[in-house]
Amino acid sequence: MLIGRENAVGVHLRLLSRISRMMNDDMFRKKILDATSAAEVLLLFDHQENELG
């Protein structure tokens, strides 16, 4: 779920696009599915974001 300001639609769409690109990575998707906590999922997204730049 993404929460944001009503007038920040562009930011919302950019975030959804970024998440979509991350989820196209088979290894990343598997790690997300294998995660055992929300904290682990957040760490995985953070790591992936840092790799993509």
Structural summary, described in words:
The chain contains three helices and no strands. 74% of the residues lie in helices and 0% in strands. It has 53 residues and is an all-alpha fold. The protein has helices at residues 9-23, 26-34, 38-52. The longest helix is centred in the first third of the chain and has 15 residues, at 9-23. The protein has a domain at 26-53. It is globular.
Write the element-wise H/E pattern from the N-terminal end onward: HHH
Report the mean per-residue pLDDT as an integer.
89
What spatial form do the alpha-carbon principal axes imply? globular
User: What class would the helix/strand composition place it in?
Assistant: mainly alpha
Number of helices: 3
Topology, number of strands: 0
Largest sheet: none
Q: In angstroms, what separates the terminal alpha carbons?
A: 22 Å
What share of the residues lie within helices? over 70%
Tell me the radius of gyration: 12 Å
| Low-confidence sequence ranges | none
Strand content: under 5%
